[in-house]
């Protein structure tokens, strides 16, 4: 198989924090006009996954400069069941060409009320797939909504947090989701087992509508398969899947139906070492790439070995990572980087965006000094992956590269 060459330009677009909150899960969507929209959440550093409104930053000059982060009232918390609060989080924006909207999808989290409210005990509430659309004409986000399923008991705890989707030529979405049925959830989410499926949905510019879903993929390892990301490459679809013990990958012919998932390995047969965090695709018309974190990179001090961030080319036939092509995209500077996103922008560039999460280590995650002493500063990184040959993949936001000028 042919190996693609690429160069890297790593940009820090923001750094610093107030030691109370930190920027988390930044992801970029690119409009054909060249407008870039960066979404991210503000994470309360005294707890785990305590989020408020989704914030956005904007760029009109090819990502060289960005506006300051602004909270989006349309993507803020709401009252849930008269007492609790529910908030959209883990969102990923992607241009939806058929509607002319930037469609962000994610899932909801439910908190006890008030600014110090934690995620509700055992997560026994339902979790919904949430979405919101950005209108480039008025640059406003719509009030966030939820996807309704025909079987709400089966899709009781179901969301598209931290996923990559594929949009079809007719405008339908292939949206990978993590699902835990009510009967599987039991009395404690952390002991349940997810399955992953791909939902085909329609979006008319305002409402996201379920049409069907495909194979239900899972494994008996703890918590099953979740946080999936989907891509299409040379007529076949590939999904990468998070698991507590190891990452998995599966492929299929139509984006809905997949073969049995297999663990990610290098081409020499050794396990990749990515676990309990997400992986994402960077897809070039001439090659398929995986971005990931892993063990064995002089990174035992980092929670779940979530730094540095690597990128390597994938053998799509053998479903393995080519070890010789592995490169560091974002270096380890004291903090974890595992919540990130990727996007194809022009034929010349694909982007990876991430931030330093300032938690300490597995034993003392809220000791911020540990990450600070190692060099972390809640940086938001934009990694520009510059291809040595043009990318003609259909996921390109700006196929002719016109936003570069």
Overview of this protein structure:
It is built from two helices and 29 strands. It has 405 residues and is mainly beta. The longest helix is centred in the C-terminal third of the chain and has 6 residues. The model has no long low-confidence stretch (mean pLDDT 92).
Query: How much helical structure, as a percent, in the residues?
Result: under 10%
Provide the domain count.
Answer: 1
What does the main sheet amount to?
A: 6 strands, antiparallel
According to CATH, the fold-level topology is Neuraminidase
Question: Beta-sheet strand percentage?
Answer: 35-45%
Please state the structural category.
mainly beta
- CA(first)-CA(last) distance: 34 Å
Mean pLDDT, to the nearest integer, reads 92
Q: In angstroms, what is the radius of gyration?
A: 19 Å
Features of this protein?
405 residues, mainly beta, Neuraminidase, six-stranded mixed sheet, 29 strands, globular
Topology readout:
Layout: E1 6-14, E2 21-30, E3 36-44, E4 55-59, E5 70-71, E6 78-80, E7 84-96, E8 101-111, E9 129-135, E10 140-141, E11 145-146, E12 157-159, E13 166-167, E14 173-180, H1 182-185, E15 193-203, E16 208-213, E17 223-224, E18 226-233, E19 236-242, E20 248-252, E21 262-263, E22 280-284, E23 287-292, E24 309-315, E25 320-321, E26 327-330, E27 340-344, E28 349-355, H2 368-373, E29 380-387
Parallel strand pairs: 15-17
Antiparallel strand pairs: 1-29, 2-3, 3-4, 4-5, 6-7, 7-8, 8-9, 9-10, 9-11, 12-14, 13-14, 14-15, 15-16, 18-19, 19-20, 20-21, 22-23, 23-24, 24-25, 24-26, 27-28, 28-29
